[in-house]
């Protein structure tokens, strides 16, 4: 088999395959055994007719076409492998030459992952990794957050509502456009609000600050135009609210008792843990920033043409992320589109620029991984699957088998390889370049 590769625009690879006549003859022998049982020839049991008689009644062309089909199916993967083409979409097969005693020729045209030849990017690794210092101020702020996480809610009915309070209210909401006799679109006798958490429509919480328990309050505001609930988006509303109960977080002091409450022995141990966590977080933030800087410069100097199929898949992932985000607030994609007066096709195109950049970065990271001979072992993939098995209370072996059977095992490997390449760029810091370098 001979294979020739031609790169076409939009990351389409054209692989031309030529198969020797002897291989075609062998394939025809096998093809005859496949097709002979499909035809009734007078005087012979089905499947028992000699080949010369079959060819006289049915035609040699039937065997030739079947042989061609089988050869395409059997040699497709091998041809792409020899041409170093990684397909990302369904191929188009075009048979260009098929005849007795002649080489069999066919073309494969398929969108493929672009092959990136990275230039020398050593100079980018001189980019400094600037990690912020773990200061006493940051440690104090972090300890305050730990204490806040251990706060107990205590009654504060004799105090005006303040930010951070958890209040229970009666809540009725009316559309102003429906006038005095409007039916409430919300009517709740025990609605709970975390004041300052931003979980209700913007402006409602702020206007409750300073209100006392059992003090009626009328609040007027306008829903945002992009609100996912179409019937409320951009509408002026009136809320009738009465605070029934007010509870306030009682934050414990930062001391040994706090340390013991979070499972540690002493305040000193808690302080060390907080300092170590801060150090790790600030280091990761610095690496992320450095990676963004390096990737930005790499994209400027390497032209990457990515196939539409890969971009469409990235858009699909973004839409899935949007669906999950909307679901957490009780909304749907359809409601979101209606509130923005947008079609699914328009949203798809709105995501395209971001998706294109994401795919470019993935392709570049894969090229970096190749340039540094980075690999991900089966054991590394299995270890990354283990937390999922634990979460679903499944045996690791069963979960790994499922990942392999669905193709997700290799998808995890690919993601881990991208992470390794990203970590290499983020963490590898070369010394200052020599003059003229």
From TrEMBL:
EC number, UniProt record: 5.2.1.8
Residue stretches making up the PPIase FKBP-type domain: 164-253
Keywords: Cell cycle, Cell division, Chaperone, Cytoplasm, Isomerase, Rotamase
Pfam families referenced in this protein's UniProt entry, alphabetically: FKBP_C, Trigger_C, Trigger_N
EC supergroup of this enzyme: isomerase
Recorded superkingdom: Bacteria
PROSITE patterns: FKBP_PPIASE (PS50059)
Subcellular location, record wording: Cytoplasm
Cross-referenced InterPro entries: PPIase_dom_sf (IPR046357), PPIase_FKBP_dom (IPR001179), Trig_fac (IPR005215), Trigger_fac_C (IPR008880), Trigger_fac_C_sf (IPR037041), Trigger_fac_ribosome-bd_bac (IPR008881), Trigger_fac_ribosome-bd_sf (IPR036611), Trigger_fact/SurA_dom_sf (IPR027304)
The reaction(s) this protein catalyses: [protein]-peptidylproline (omega=180) = [protein]-peptidylproline (omega=0)
Main location: cytoplasm
Matching PANTHER family: TRIGGER FACTOR CHAPERONE AND PEPTIDYL-PROLYL CIS/TRANS ISOMERASE, TRIGGER FACTOR-LIKE PROTEIN TIG, CHLOROPLASTIC
Assigned protein family: Belongs to the FKBP-type PPIase family. Tig subfamily.
Domain remark from Swiss-Prot or TrEMBL: Consists of 3 domains; the N-terminus binds the ribosome, the middle domain has PPIase activity, while the C-terminus has intrinsic chaperone activity on its own.
HAMAP family: Trigger_factor_Tig
Protein function: Involved in protein export. Acts as a chaperone by maintaining the newly synthesized protein in an open conformation. Functions as a peptidyl-prolyl cis-trans isomerase.
Name this protein carries in UniProt: Trigger factor
Organism: Sulfobacillus thermotolerans
Species classification: Bacteria, Bacillati, Bacillota, Clostridia, Eubacteriales
């Amino acid at each position: 088999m001979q294979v020739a590769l031609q790169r076409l625009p939009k990351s389409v690879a054209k692989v031309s395959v030529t198969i020797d006549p002897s291989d075609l003859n062998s394939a025809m022998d096998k093809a005859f055994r496949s097709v002979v049982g499909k035809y009734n020839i007078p005087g012979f049991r089905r499947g028992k007719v000699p080949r010369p008689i079959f060819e006289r009644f049915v035609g040699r062309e039937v065997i030739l076409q079947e042989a061609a089909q089988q050869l395409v199916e059997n040699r497709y993967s091998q041809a792409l492998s020899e041409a170093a083409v990684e397909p990302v979409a369904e191929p188009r097969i075009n048979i260009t030459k098929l005849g007795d005693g002649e080489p069999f020729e066919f073309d494969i045209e398929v969108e493929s992952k672009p092959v990136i030849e990275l230039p020398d990017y050593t100079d980018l690794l001189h980019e400094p990794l600037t990690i912020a210092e773990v200061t006493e101020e940051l440690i104090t702020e972090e300890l305050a957050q730990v204490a806040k996480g251990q706060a107990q809610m205590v009654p504060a009915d004799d105090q005006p509502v303040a930010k951070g309070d958890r209040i229970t209210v009666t809540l009725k909401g009316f559309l102003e456009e429906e006038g005095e006799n409007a039916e409430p679109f919300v009517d709740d006798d025990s609605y709970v609000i975390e004041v300052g958490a931003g979980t209700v429509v913007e402006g409602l919480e702020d206007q409750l600050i300073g209100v006392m328990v059992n003090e009626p309050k009328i609040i007027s505001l306008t829903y945002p135009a992009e609100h996912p609930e179409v019937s409320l988006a951009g509408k002026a509303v009136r809320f009738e609210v009465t605070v029934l109960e007010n509870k306030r977080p009682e934050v414990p002091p930062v001391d040994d008792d706090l340390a013991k409450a979070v499972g540690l022995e002493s305040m000193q141990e808690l302080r060390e843990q907080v300092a170590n966590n801060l150090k790790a977080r600030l280091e990761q933030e610095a690496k992320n920033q450095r990676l963004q800087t390096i990737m930005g410069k790499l994209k400027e100097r390497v032209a990457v043409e990515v196939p539409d199929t890969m971009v469409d898949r990235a858009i699909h992932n973004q839409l899935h992320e949007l669906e999950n985000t909307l679901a957490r607030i009780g909304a749907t994609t359809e409601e979101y589109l209606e509130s923005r007066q947008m079609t699914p096709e328009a949203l798809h195109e709105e995501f395209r620029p971001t998706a294109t950049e994401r795919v470019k970065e993935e392709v570049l990271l894969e090229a970096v991984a190749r340039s540094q001979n980075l690999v991900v072992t089966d054991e590394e993939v299995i270890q990354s699957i283990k937390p999922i098995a634990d979460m679903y209370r499944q045996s690791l072996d069963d979960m790994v088998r499922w990942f392999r059977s669905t193709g997700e095992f290799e998808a995890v490997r690919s993601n881990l390889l991208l992470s390794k390449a990203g970590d290499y760029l983020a963490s590898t810091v070369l010394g200052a370049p020599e003059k003229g370098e």
